[in-house]
Amino acid sequence: MLLRRILTAAIALAVAVLPEAHASAEQLPQPMWVLARSPFQLEVTVLSVELKKQDSRTTNVWHRVRVERVIAGSGLKAGDETAVVSQIFDNPPGTVGSSGDRGPFTGPRGLPAKGDRARIFADGSAKVLKTVPPNGWQKLERTISFVAADDEYRSEITMPFLAKLVGDAGVASTRLHFATGDDGTGSSAKTPDVGGRTGLTDDWSLRGSDASVLYMRFRELGHNQMISFDDATTHGLPLVGFRTSTHAFRYPGSGDGASRWNDAFPIETWGTNWKFHHGHSSKTRILPPEAEAAKHPVLAGVTIPHDGLVVSSWLYQVEPLPDDCRVLLWGEAVGSERPDAPQKQPVLWVRERPRKEGLPMQRIAFTTLGHPADFANPEARLIAVQMVAWALDEMKAIEDADRAAIRAAAFEAPPTR
């Protein structure tokens, strides 16, 4: 008994005198939704960089920055200068631990250098900001994940096309995530498979994207996949959805466990779930927007003839929609196989949902369009690009020259499956 007490006391003493550890392992980057809840979110230009040793293992990196744009945060405006402090840790050989703040830049430990433009996610005060570790420094250009995971409407072709249009317009950089049958954790080894339902390629990087564009149908993603998907889609980041994303999931069961995603996700996100459509032999006439809807940025520069625009998508039943859904375009069925059903339904709507006080609203845009032939229509694909730009609050990137290029882009629509 005495020996046990001595050993216990010795262990306690050893723990007490151990040097303070910053982490027991390398800290993983924070997902974007965590960064996007930071009280300060800014676009800045770095004016100077200074390293100050705090102790034998810790160095403070002080950046003097000029604010170019305030996304969130009180007490600062464009043109102001302020200080930003980050930390880097020097671990002795043979030890493990966090290396501290780091990023994709050329300065110390990947932090920005003088002259760099960057985004900051930070707390602290307007006079001294503290970046959120370890990746509160982000590149200026935003990143959008495009999820192409349906097996009917050829999203594996249309989403890469849309992603290229978005990238060429300078809205953001893009990532593509395809359906796969591999639901393991080794994302780099995953092979796209249109028939696969349980996985997404490169799923882990969903966590780091600023926004997601979803074209999904009847997925049964595995546990690890859903962790990434949940991070990207249920925490207030911008979202855009197409057509069958009203029934993105089809887990077995009846409303419990994973099967809750079947209806809960589309209803909570888009405002509606899958009900029915007007038949594969029908089409949809997009009606001219009402006066107020026509002023919305998603429809900027879009031309809908006075007698409507007929597209290949058959009309989806979506009503009723929640009060916070603002309908921008209505469609009516052409050659409906359901004459007993309502012949007019919303085909494009947007939502703006409040987040924590001081943070920008979450923007969501959804359309029931998405037949591959729709992307061959210049107006329909301009709408699609501007849905993405609006959701990300990057409409300023799209100029008249971009709209002309989007309309002129060549696209040969594949058949549906």
What is the CATH top level name of the largest domain? Answer: Alpha Beta
Count of beta strands? 16
Low-confidence stretches: 1-23
Span from first to last CA? 75 Å
Please write the string of helix (H) and strand (E) elements. Answer: HHEEEEEEEHEEEHEHEHEEEEHH
Class of secondary structure makeup:
alpha/beta
Q: How is the CATH topology of the largest domain named?
A: Rossmann fold
Whole-angstrom Rg: 25 Å
CATH superfamily of the largest domain: Class I glutamine amidotransferase (GATase) domain
Describe what this molecule looks like in 3D:
- The protein is an alpha/beta fold and 417 residues long.
- It has two domains: 32-139, OB fold (Dihydrolipoamide Acetyltransferase, E2P) (Beta Barrel), CATH 2.40.50; 143-408, Rossmann fold.
- The protein has eight helices and 16 strands.
- It has helices spanning 2-17, 32-35, 155-168, 223-233, 260-269, 291-294, 378-391, 400-408, and strands at residues 40-53, 58-72, 81-89, 117-124, 128-131, 137-139, 143-149, 173-180, 199-200, 211-216, 239-242, 283-286, 309-311, 325-334, 344-353, 362-367.
- The relative contact order is 0.11.
Fold topology:
Elements: H1 2-17, H2 32-35, E1 40-53, E2 58-72, E3 81-89, E4 117-124, E5 128-131, E6 137-139, E7 143-149, H3 155-168, E8 173-180, E9 199-200, E10 211-216, H4 223-233, E11 239-242, H5 260-269, E12 283-286, H6 291-294, E13 309-311, E14 325-334, E15 344-353, E16 362-367, H7 378-391, H8 400-408
